[in-house]
Amino acid sequence: EALAAAEAADLARAAPAAAAPAMVNDIDFAIGGSDNQYVEIELDPGEAIVAEIGCMIWKDQAIGFEAILGDGKDSGMLQRIASAGSNALSGEGLFLGEYRHCGTGKARIGLGGRTPGHILPVRLEEMGGSLVCQKGAFLAAAKGISVSIRMVSSFWTGLDGGAGFILQRLSGTGWAFLHVGGSLIERTLGEGEAIHVEPGCIAAFEPQVRFDTDELTMPGAGLAGQAFQEMKASMAGVRNTECARLTGPGKVWLQSLPFARLGKIIVHVCSSLAEAHQKGIVHRDIKPENIMLMR
User: Fold this and answer.
1) Given this model, what pLDDT does residue 261 score?
2) Which residues are CB-neighbours of 257 under 8 A, at least 6 positions away?
3) Are 63 and 109 in contact (CB under 8 A)?
4) Which DSSP string do the residues of 203-242 spell out, in sequence order?
5) ω into residue 249 within 30 of 0, thus cis?
6) To which H or E segment does residue 264 belong?
7) Which of 92, 175, 209, 243 gives 20 to 30 Å between its CA and that of 73?
8) Residue 293 near residue 265, CB atoms below 8 Å
9) What value does the mean pLDDT take over residues 31-44?
């Protein structure tokens, strides 16, 4: 019996230890709204999220707020400064907001984007622990998720791509929330499958998806034909014939109304209203149905 007990002890020591479950920053949430969506996040006592400053709609009184340098994941001052600089380059501010439940029971907070659009919730561990998104798309995430920059595949691609040169990378475990302008479009690309996208319309994609740029041309056109096409495009008001090329495998999320495009519409509408006011015309019913867009 003593020998059997010793053998059993040896086998127990030789057996590999069970792997510890992955730490997941799990939070409860619900998405509300239709065309102008918002996310309502429920926090337990001591639980916290980080979010873009200025995106809060409302919160329970028990939730405290603190402006943090960077994403709040790093503790050293140099790391915080580097994280803040990374946030600024990727379209966020130097500071993010930390919202922490400092009371008892459950507490909720509502967050929304600055433009009409949809909320895209993403669980990062299902994406291999990271996700690449358009700069400025980050809305909020569980505390502990890192927000950094991701450059495109090459410097020259970045110079050609313009808006797609600097992207955001979200890393960690748990839920992250992106704000997508306009309608949300999801595509799943197969191995080697590629699509052309206006760079500003890229919302997010999985890290294994390759980002490059292409020229908008008609396949099979020679140099002379390509030059003629570029001349026609210039006459038609197309100032940039570059587009992004996303190559699978992986998921891609697109937005139909990027902020830059919406900003141009707002500027034109305000300019038209100012011209009308100068002529003594006052429009008392401004709404999307009464606005006509023309090139």
Assistant:
1) 63
2) 115, 116, 117, 181, 182, 183
3) yes
4) EEE-TTSEEEEEE---TT--HHHHHHHHHHHHHTT----E
5) yes
6) helix 259-278
7) 209
8) yes
9) 93
Percentages helix, strand, coil for the chain, rounded to the nearest 5? 25, 35, 35
Of residues 144, 109, 107, the one with CA closest to residue 124: 144
pLDDT classification of 203: cutoffs 50, 70, 90: very high
Listed residue (71, 52, 206) closest to 147, CA to CA: 71
Q: List the structure tokens of 85.
A: 């600089």
Closest CA to 260 of 240, 277, 274: 240
Helix (H) or strand (E) holding 11: helix 2-14
Q: How far apart are CA 87 and CA 208, in angstroms?
A: 22
Q: Helix H segments across 127-182?
A: 155-161
Dig out the tokens for 227 from the structure. 């030059």
Predicted local confidence at residue 37, as pLDDT: 94
State pLDDT tens for residues 141-169: 998 888 887 766 544 444 444 444 678 88
Structure tokens at 53: 């400053």
Q: How far apart are CA 148 and CA 268, in angstroms?
A: 34
Based on the number of CB atoms within 10 Å of its own CB, is 70 exposed (0-12), middle (13-18) or buried (19 or more)?
buried
- Residues across the chain: 295
- At 82, is the secondary structure helix, strand, or coil? helix
The CA distances from residue 35 to 112, 181, 277, in Å, are 12, 10, 31
CA 156 remoteness from chain centre: 23
| pTM of this structure | 0.71
Q: Is 195 exposed, middle or buried (0-12, 13-18, 19+ CB in 10 A)?
A: middle
Kindly report the CA angle at 187 between 29 and 178, in degrees rounded to 5?
30
Rounded CA separation 91/163 (Å): 11
Give the single-character DSSP code of 162: G
Could you give the angle at the alpha carbon of 40 between the alpha carbons of 71 and 182, nearest 5°? 85
